[in-house]
Amino acid sequence: MSETTAIPDVQARATERKAPRGKTFAEHPLVQLTIVRFLETLREPEALFWIFAFPILLAGGLGIAFRNRPAEVLKIAAITPQLTQSLEQEKLLSVELLDMPSAEEALRTGKIALLAVPGVNGAIVYRYDDTNPEGRNARMLADRAVQQAAGRVDPVRSSDVVMREPGSRYIDFLIPGLLGMNLMGSAIWGMGFTVVDMRRKKLLKRLIATPMPKQYFLLSYVLSRILMLVAEVGIVLGFGAWIFHVPVRGSLLSLALVCLLGSLTFSAMGLLLASRAKTIEAASGLMNAVMLPMWIASGVFFSAQRFPDVVQPIIKALPLTAAIDALRANMLQGANFVQLAPQMAVLSAWLLICFVLALKLFRWR
Amino acid sequence: MSPVVSQPALRVTGLRKAYQDVVAVNGLDLEVRPGECFGLLGPNGAGKTTTVEICEGLTAPDAGDVELLGMHWSSDADQLRQRLGIQLQDTQLSEKLTVFETLRLFRSFFGQGPDASESIRLVQLEEKKNSRVGNLSGGQKQRLALACALVGDPDFLFLDEPTTGLDPQARRQLWDLIEQFKSSGRTILLTTHYMDEAERLCERVAIMDNGRQIALGSPRELIASTCAEHMVAFSAGAKASALDIPALRKIEGVRDVRSENGNVEMQVTELHLAVPALLAELTRQNIPLTELSTHSATLEDVFVSLTGRHLRDQ
After folding, report:
1. Using N-to-C axis directions, what is the helix angle for A170-200 and A54-65, rounded to 10°?
2. Complex ipTM tops 0.90
């Protein structure tokens, strides 16, 4: 171009079209398409909420609701100081010394689980509700304390090792589930909504009216998805590790590969679902119809094993089940890449089928 | 003007396109000369947009041939895309991006052309450079769309209804910009249903109706060939039914008379003779005259005389 803004006249135009000068990295259409895609996502506050804040709120809420409580101390009462003293030897019992009427009142109203009363000839009578597990528990603990205080020696010596390690709690089960759900949601919504919205606004048609290489358009989605993926996975895993000490026992590399393959598979599903739809309403209907069964059946919040055996092969073939199973195996059992092969195969099959179909069906207008 | 020997920038022959049971384009021939601004005029549904989209390589015709800059879509699509500037009817550019980001994206698709900042200056959007597209006015959005069409320094520019829906001031501003680009030697194909737009911008126009071309020529030629130079309009009010139309046709200098709901429109060659005669005739018929007006004939009048319909009647 000339250095002024003056536009070359008609004679000059014929000869003026020169060979294009080389482009810098930032001027490359793929780089520009990816930047634009990424900026559009960042500037969509609702999308950011669903991708980043929602899984953390869900994990935090459920993690607190289903946290493991320390073993509970049972409240009981006795009516003599001597009996009280013997019972207090048991750490899992909290013993109160009461007079008979108020002790009976406390037992009736459930304030105590058991009442110990001296019987005839040094015997002891336990009064409790045998349909209440706490009552039966208290009976066993109280009697053991009383017998040991009286000098009983058990024939077999026993000791306890307590298991409260990360990895077997509900939150450990939940975090990989949420991660899988998030991979699916952000990929399908991210792909589906934006493509349909661009078709509705005739922006897709405007883009193919330029010399834009069409494969770059698709590739820019993949690249910006990978950029977002790092943030998405990082935030959920980091939150789980920091607040709840959820472990990642497998290799981070195979975890990254599972996330990448999962995200690509769900993106291909999103592209397929968005390949023809001309309105957001039609697209959301399709996307929800596809995702809802997987939210329920693929074991996000509870084990997919709870469904009957007949439907297990179908559930196992769902991409979200494969993704979540692979994530759990990696994070909780420390499975290596070879052990994840069945799940990776399921995801790859879905990726291939959805992508080929999407390319066949896709309409730019 | 370029020499006569040069081949047309766009040649369309025997174009035909039907959607389900509607024939959008029905055997159309067009020739656009290099460096001219050619207007495709017609009411909504005349087939203008379908024609343009076939020329732009976005729609495949059922029959017919398109030769653009000496090339064909079937064999030279990649080369053609680099040399065309396209503004589609009502494209909504991404609202979340700024003006600059949008143009930088479009610029990246082309091998040459002004950079994003220069394009912004060309359409006078400097003060909106970093504004989101969603915050622009209608006229600013249209100027951005024009900049997106110009960012590859095109040889051939397609503008599909560039000023539809804009207020008069924004329309004039866009016309000024288009005129500026005309002087740079680009060939422009413009569709519009505004006759004043075509008269202002186009060297030649083709009028389309029902998928066919019904007239072709410069705006002046069309006006001169199909109707008289002046239009006289008046209203006969309540006594319209008593009006003797054949008597009006006999007035000297009157070419044609058209009457609709008491509103009368007359094509007149010699205004200074026809108006006094009209007034005398109305007095003779005892018709009270209201709202007499005259104007120079426009392309709108050409369209009415060709089809019997107004352009905006749909």
Report:
1. 160
2. no
